[in-house]
Amino acid sequence: MKARTSARHLRESIKSIARNGWMTFASVSAVTVTLLLVGVFIVLMLNMNKVATDIEKDVEIRVLLEIGTEKAQVEKLEKKIAQIDRVESVEFSSKEQELQNLVQDLGDDFRLFEQDNPLFDVFIVKAKLPRDTGQIAKEINQYESVNEAKYGEAKIEKLFNVLEMSRNVGLVLIIGLLFTAMFLISNTIKITIVARRREIEIMKLVGATNWFVRWPFILEGLWLGVLGSIIPIALVTTGYYYAYGFIKPKLQDNFIQILDFTPFIYQVNGLILLMGCLIGAWGSFMSVRKFLKV
Predict the structure, then answer these.
(1) Dist CA 55 CA 48 (whole Å)
(2) Sign of the alpha-carbon dihedral angle for 246, 252, 257, 261
(3) Which residue segment(s) compose the domain that 258 sits in?
(4) Burial class (CB within 10 angstroms; exposed 0-12, middle 13-18, buried 19+) of 40
(5) For all residues of the chain together, what is the average pLDDT?
(6) Residues 117 and 215 in one domain
(7) In this structure, are 27 and 52 located in the same domain?
(8) What digits encode the pLDDT tens for the residues 202-222?
(9) Angle 133-96-70 (CA atoms, 0-180°, nearest 5)?
């Protein structure tokens, strides 16, 4: 496309926005409301996904060793567990360390057991994929010198199912919102184009190509998307700034965390702007298509 033609399309798209004031306002309002809903939902779902991932990463297998297991057997078992493909890490914790952890968590009353420690030596095993935890525990349970491999089977499986369901529901809702946005914005832009169908017909009759007619409308849709994304970006940024400032201190010593304000908010804002541009351009492209058949 020649620079002169491109400049003409750009001018026409901007003039059209200014000329059709009320229709521009209606289109931008539709884009704004829809992108605000999508933006808020994306922030919520990505943070829910972060929390779910943190919970999954905290899942571990505690491998209790038989009492009296020799050091050589412990080292051999550690290597054997580490060689399992799905295992990410293996950490040894002696029964003395386990007792110290117990005293730290539950109080000095448990120091009474220092003379006759009833606890087991333990391997703390983490899977590369949390979903593999159960299979790894079953495999380790069959190894020699292992008393029991525990990971809270019933609760963990239930937790995984809940997290997977919440992710799937969230994904479906986001996709549904995006399709709703496309449909709503496309119809709003279509009203604008219907009002200018004579202009399109005249351009076609004097020999304008389809793409020559399309480009000003596509660029106009692009500008509508940009204008419609300004308020959602501002509101989502402000809302997350205050929410982050309120929630973050309360999770200071917790293994569950929300996404940091930066660079997360820039990524969300970029996504909102991109969606606005794509939806606006796509809505214009689809709406003008039927009027090109003259």
Answers:
(1) 11
(2) positive
(3) 3-56+159-292
(4) middle
(5) 83
(6) no
(7) yes
(8) 777 787 787 887 888 888 888
(9) 75
- Domain tally, the chain: 2
Other CB atoms within a 10 A radius of the CB of residue 39 amount to 25
217-243 burial: b if 16+ Cβ within 10 Å, else e: bbbbbbbbbebbbbbbbeebbeebeee
CA distance 148 to 167: 32
Q: How many CB atoms lie within 10 A of CB 195?
A: 11
Other Cβ atoms less than 10 A from the Cβ of 284: the count is: 30
What number of H helices and E strands is found in the chain?
9, 4
3-state SS string over 206-241? Answer: CCCCHHHHHHHHHHHHHHHHHHHHHHHHHHHHHHHH
Residue type, 47: N
Show the tokens assigned to 281: 């351009």
Q: Which pair of tokens denotes residue 117? A: 């420690």
CA 59, chain centre distance (Å): 21
pTM of the full structure: 0.75
Q: Which two tokens stand for residue 128?
A: 């590369």
Cis omega before residue 263 (within 30°)? yes
Q: Is residue 240 a contact partner of residue 265, using CB atoms and an 8 Å limit?
A: yes
Mind listing the pLDDT tens digit for each residue in 159-205? Answer: 778 878 887 887 888 788 777 767 766 676 677 677 777 777 777 77
CA pair distance 167, 174, nearest whole angstrom:
11
Q: Please name the amino acid found at residue 80.
A: K
Domain C-terminal end among 124, 150, 176: 150
Query: Both tokens of residue 90?
Result: 């293996």
Torsion sign over Cα 251, 257, 259, 263: positive
Q: Most confidently modeled of 135-149, 208-222, 280-294?
A: 135-149
Give the number of other CB atoms < 10 A from CB of residue 68: 8
Q: Are 227 and 31 contacting, i.e. CB atoms less than 8 angstroms apart?
A: yes
Q: Environment class of residue 149 by beta-carbon count within 10 Å: exposed (0-12), middle (13-18) or buried (19+)?
A: buried
